[in-house]
Amino acid sequence: MDVHEALYTTRMMRRLRPEPIPLDTQARILDAAVRAPNGGNTQRWHFVAVDNRKLIGKFARLFREARALEYEKFRTGKGPMVMPAPGADPATHAETMRRIKGSGDYLADHFERVPLLLFVFAIDDLGGANIYPAIWSALLAARAEGVGGVLTMVLNNSRDRVNELLGVPVEEGWKMAAMLTLGYPLGKWGLAANRRPVHEVSSRNGWGEPFGVEVPQPLWPPHGTADLAAAG
C-alpha cells in the first residue's frame, strides 16, 4: 500500500467484526510499531495484546463504566472536547460530538466482540514523545493489513484495575499510554475529506501569519498542480 493512501485513509474504526486477527498479522503490526523513532533508541515501551474472551469481557465492563464517567463530565461541561475548537462552528461541533457518541455507543455495546485489545505502556515518556509515534505506526501497519481500530484513553479512569488485571509492574514506573481496539472493520475505508484546509489551521513565522500557500482540496489522490494555490 502506498504510504500516502495509508495516511489519508486511516481513520477511527469502532464497528468491528468479531473474527480473530491471525498471529502473523499481529506480529507485523507490532514489528512496525517497534521500528518507530524514539529518543536515544531507549525503547521505553511495552505492548500487551489481549484476545482472551473472558478477559475482554472484564475490560468491556470497565470500558462502559469509564465511558459513563467521561460523558457525565461532558454533560456537565467539564470534560475534554466540550467546547469547539477556536474558529469552529458550534453547531457543527455539536453534530460531530453526537456522531462520535453514536459510534462510541456501538463500540461500548459490542465490546465483548472486539477480537483484539492492544494495551500500550510507557515509562518516563516525556509527554508521549516516544510512545505515540509507535502507536501511530501500529495503526498505519494495521491499515495496510486491512485491520481497523481506535485509540482510546477512557480506561485511564480505571487505571488501577487495568494494572491489576494485566499484572503491570507499576513499581518499575510503567504507565498505560493508551488502549487500541483492533479488528476487521464493518465499514469502509475512505478519505478523511471533512477537514479544515491546511491554510486555515497553519501559520508561518508567527501565530496567525499567512501560511503562504492554500490547499483547497486534499492532495491525495494527486490531482495536479492546481491543487496548490499561492496565497494572495
From TrEMBL:
Residues 10-184 form the Nitroreductase domain. Keywords: Flavoprotein, FMN, Oxidoreductase. It holds the Pfam family Nitroreductase. One of its GO terms (molecular function) is oxidoreductase activity. InterPro entries: Nitroreductase (IPR029479), Nitroreductase-like (IPR000415), Nitroreductase/BluB (IPR050627). It comes from the Bacteria. Gene3D superfamilies: NADH Oxidase (3.40.109.10). This is Nitroreductase.
